[in-house]
Amino acid sequence: MLEGRDVEQAVSLFSDIIDERYKDSADFDLRHFKKIYTPPDVKTRLGRPECVYLVGKMGSEVVCFIFGWAREEIGHLYWLGVKTGHRGKGYGTMLIERAVAEFEKRDCHEAKFFTSQRVGLRLFEKCGFKDITYINKLFFGVNLVQMVKKLKAFSDDGQTKKIIISGEAGQGIKLITHALGSILNKLGKEVALDLTYDARVIGGNITAKLIYSNKKIESPFFKEADIAIQLSKKPDRSIVAKKMVFEELAGEIDDGIDDNRAMESLRAPFEHTANEQFRSSVFVNMIALGNLLKYIGVDIEHINFPAEFPARFLNENITAVKYGYTHRDWK
């Protein structure tokens, strides 16, 4: 596992790999990836139970790395790199196998990886991964292939999941929760959705509570969610969830929150990402939806998006969802 004393070397190698791998991709902006993997950010993530960051060393020198994340019984591999001069020795294969073993320890039923490199395809195929999804260059500037390795049979035993999405009027909360409910229903889930509007007609907040299950839902009402996403810059303190994701620009999110809620509080740069990548905060909701679909383990290539979204801005909305799906971890 990556240790704090090796973070600087690992991040430096990661930066070199990015520069090398995408040096000819002038139309593909990777600055945001480097912003994600700064030494302070990486050191913070090392303390998270989902973190699977591994390195290989020759003496005190870090010569290879793999960055992964385990959540909701799915292992996600994001970046793999081997230093020049140490390639062709099987280090990449060993890291992948070690990461997969970590996922199995954490009871994951599958491992996933996106690659744009032919060598990556061959390497992961050698380790038992199969390519299942192709994402065209139009979405991210490079062609991507999603590869998956099944680790065990998946069974959620009728498991019920509870989700809350809240935000301000105009942020498209109703649109994405209706789309999410429709997507889950078409995947064979029982779904119940409750939308609540505050008293203000203009500029008020909207809260959507969605529950889905493989079995009949006895009651659509609940107090505590498994995950809640708050897109408003003024968080609703009445919302309770095991995992809470706040808009990065939200203020005072920690003050006044009871410790006895046992809540994990995370920040996500939804608005910043929407403005930086799509030049409009309008797409905040779609980026959040993409992140949420990844979090709950829905394969977006099985979704017929034109049937879920209005025709206006359809391509832009699909692109934003796919960006959120393949973008960074919440932290």
Ordered list of secondary-structure elements with their pairings:
Blueprint: H1 7-21, H2 31-36, H3 39-45, E1 51-58, E2 61-71, E3 74-82, H4 91-105, E4 110-115, H5 118-126, E5 130-135, H6 137-140, E6 144-150, E7 161-168, H7 173-186, E8 190-197, E9 205-213, E10 224-230, E11 240-247, E12 264-268, H8 270-278, H9 284-295, H10 305-308, H11 314-326
Parallel strand pairs: 3-4, 7-10, 10-11, 11-12
Antiparallel strand pairs: 1-2, 2-3, 4-6, 5-6, 7-9, 8-9
Helix pairs in contact: 7-9, 8-9, 9-11
CATH architectural type of the largest domain: 3-Layer(aba) Sandwich
What is the H/E string? Answer: HHHEEEHEHEHEEHEEEEEHHHH
The overall number of domains is: 2
Q: How many DSSP helices?
A: 11
Q: What structural class do the secondary elements suggest?
A: alpha/beta
Beta-strand content = 25-35%
Question: How is the largest sheet built, in terms of strand order?
Answer: 1-2-3-4-6-5
Distance between the termini: 19 Å
**CA-atom Rg in angstroms:** 20 Å
The biggest beta sheet is recorded as: 6 strands, mixed
Count of DSSP strands: 12
Identify low-pLDDT runs: 255-262
